[in-house]
Amino acid sequence: MGKVRIVGGGLTGIAAALQAHRLGARDIELFEQYGELGGALLPHIDHGLELRLTRRYFAARGEPLRDLLEWHGVAFDEFEDRCGSVSPGAGGQPMFTADFGGPSLAARQTALVEPAGESLADRLRAYPPEIEHALSKYCRWSLGAWLDEVHESSAAALGLARVHPRQADATMLAELKRADEAYDALYGLPRNLWGRTRGSEAALPREGFAGLFAAAGRALAGLGVKIHLGSMMSPREAIAATGRGEALVWAADPGPLYRAVGMSRPKAVAASTVTYVFRAKTDLKPFWLQNFTAKGVVFRISTYENHGETLLSAECVAEAGDAELRREIRRLVSGFGPVQLGDQLHQAIERRWGIVSMAEAKAMGPLEGKLAGALDGAFVPGCWRAERTEDAFARIASGLAAALDSQSVGRTASAA
After folding, report:
1. CATH code that applies to domain 4-56+208-261+357-415
2. Which of 10, 114, 129, 182 places its Cα 20 to 30 Å from the Cα of 2?
């Protein structure tokens, strides 16, 4: 088979290289601009501890991406995925909901209307007015952006994949979810209301994410993949270098590609996250919760163990003083169990992951089309939209299969 070039050495690029080899490619090159594999998921290491800036889990056994990594030597430990949410309650008091990561709102009505468009505002307008109002308030607090300018796919990153109308009849809502795809997509129920007392299973790499990327690097080297660290091909270089019978996987930020195909780069949502990492003592581990009250600065808290210590990450919409931040974390976690916070180990400010503007969403299709045309169908886009890692991998796998298949067809036609 022809050469496969992969630009971007994060989890997407690593998975693309492993999958390309699985599909029969043997001339594979991977380019990563930094000195290590890992991309956005590479944790900051301090005092021998992984300081993770956001919640990242893998699915239970049997999911293709996890299976692929396990096949190449990455070990995982499974655990019960425990979660909770804090929503606005009566009299301004917080409402704590266990075993549900989305907003639980005081609403009886569940009738939906067809969304008029693809913006986040359109998605929220599909709900009854009392739900729409609460969700809009939360989104404006969380993003500080006009919701008509944000694409609906951003709902997952905001924790709004599903909403629980807590005054509605649970049995009726369950039936609606089973009968109607729109209700199933927009509404959810806490696990105990489904008759489930245990959480869904999830998994984390046994040696942490740093260990995952180290193991993946060894596996790629063992397969003969040429890894270029501290080296990033420009879009023009990558396109020009990709000849007939070859494939290009762009697993990095798509922003630089627009100019290469004569398009203007679309305006992004200017949203950032400030994350603080603490040592902690709590029985809630691993655990995560989302704050939908639109109060304070913390929108997500996650706990995990690393090298025998419990760490807590607090993702915030703005910077906060240490004393104020500690009070808010204890207040949000108090509905699920006690927590004691130790030293603050790390602070980082980064672009908010998974938030897609309407301009970006509209431009992605034409961008992919131009690149596919320029490379005769041998271009494979990475995870450019707000989607689950598992879904992104499925998209990469199908794109690679099609590109490599077209290479075979092209060679057969040339031989004939």
Report:
1. 3.40.50.720
2. 10
